[in-house]
Hints:
Blueprint: H1 2-10, E1 36-39, E2 42-54, E3 57-66, E4 69-78, E5 81-90, H2 97-104, E6 112-115, E7 118-133, E8 139-152, E9 157-163, E10 169-177, E11 183-186
Antiparallel strand pairs: 1-2, 1-11, 2-3, 2-7, 3-4, 4-5, 5-10, 6-7, 7-8, 8-9, 9-10
Amino acid sequence: DSMISLGKKWFGGKDSDEDVDGLADMRLDSMRMGDLVDHDLKTWEVTALSVYDYDGFPTREWQFTAGDEVRFLEREEDDGKIGWTLTRGISIGDLPQSITAALRADQDPPQTIGFDSRQYEAVESTSGVQHDVDADGTATGEGREFVSWNFETQDGRLLFLVQWSEQRIAAYEGEYVEEYSFTDILPGGQR
């Protein structure tokens, strides 16, 4: 009888929603610190978690590390539609100097930014608060206020400028991604 029950779990019988070896809930949006995921022919480890609140509009971010490479996966949900972006940090020094000059003077950046032989057009600007997330998924600390500007190319490449304070400005470049492009999610050592 227990074999029949196990068969139902493996092959999607009525007991299949029960947790089998703790792997059933390993979805992209439930990853925690130390978890592993494959993407773009590399295995990435979750090395940080954050939540962002854009004026009541929450998003989650996972920092992935593979060797000396770091990526940021952000999940947003708008009217029931889930969207994912994957970005990498870029040096603010690789962007036109007019950008940092404008931000430090409390002005908006230019409407168009040239980077890596692409033209990025301004889409929106927003402000919010970022919180780190501890190992069990709870937001911690006071939170850091920021302002961000989103830019996009004709073919869907993304560029984000984030100003944390007058002097601290960060830039990220990337693209929209699909959840199915991330595979083989495995629990890490901190579960």
